[in-house]
Amino acid sequence: MVFIAALLSGLVFGLGLLVSGMANPAKVLGFLDLGGLWDPSLAFVMGGAIAVAAVAFAVARRRSVSLLGTAMRLPSARQIDRRLVGGSLLFGVGWGVAGFCPGTALVGVGMGLAQAGVFVAAMLVGMGLFAWLESR
User: Fold this and answer.
1) Contacting residues for 23 by C-beta, under 8 A, at least 6 apart
2) Among positive and negative, which fits the CA dihedral 22, 26, 29, 34?
3) Sign of CA dihedral 50, 52, 47, 99
């Protein structure tokens, strides 16, 4: 049942990315281009997502198990450290250069976008490099 819930959640998330236009790198780059022809529409998409997530996390913090009976595993770290800032900067630069984040890149691969495939390949190499460095 957990697998089916995860699959359905991923499908709804991907559909939301498609409907909102966030899977379109040109639209994302238009949103990030504050000095050019700025497209503010994605700010509303992100604002809505943050509002829904804030409610969901507030409810989740009060629970010890999920609706499916699995343990709730919420992040416990509260400090802002060098690794968090560095990772955030790397994420932002990658998003700004490519117009993809990990979620939208996977949707792009499903749409057959070649640049999304390159992004996902680079992302997997980066994840592997991180895991290798962490294990040392």
Assistant:
1) 14, 17, 104, 107, 108, 111
2) negative
3) positive
Lookup result for tokens 């700010």: 43
What pTM value is reported for the model?
A: 0.77
The span from the CA of 48 to the CA of 30, in Å, is: 19
**What is the model's pLDDT at position 74?**
87
Q: pLDDT digit string (tens) for 51-101?
A: 999 999 999 999 999 889 899 888 888 899 999 999 999 888 888 888 898
Instruction: Return the axis-axis angle of helices 41-61 and 25-32, rounded to nearest 10°.
Output: 90
Pairwise CA distance, residues 32 & 26, whole Å: 10
Determine phi and psi for 77, rounding to 5 degrees.
-65, 135
- The shares of helix, strand and coil residues in the chain, as percent rounded to the nearest 5, are 70, 0, 25
State how far the Cα of 131 lies from the Cα of 136, in Å rounded to an integer: 9
Token readout for 129 is 């490099």
d(CA 65, CA 73): 9
Q: Which pairs count as long-range contacts for 52-57, CB under 8 Å and 24+ apart, including other chains? A: none
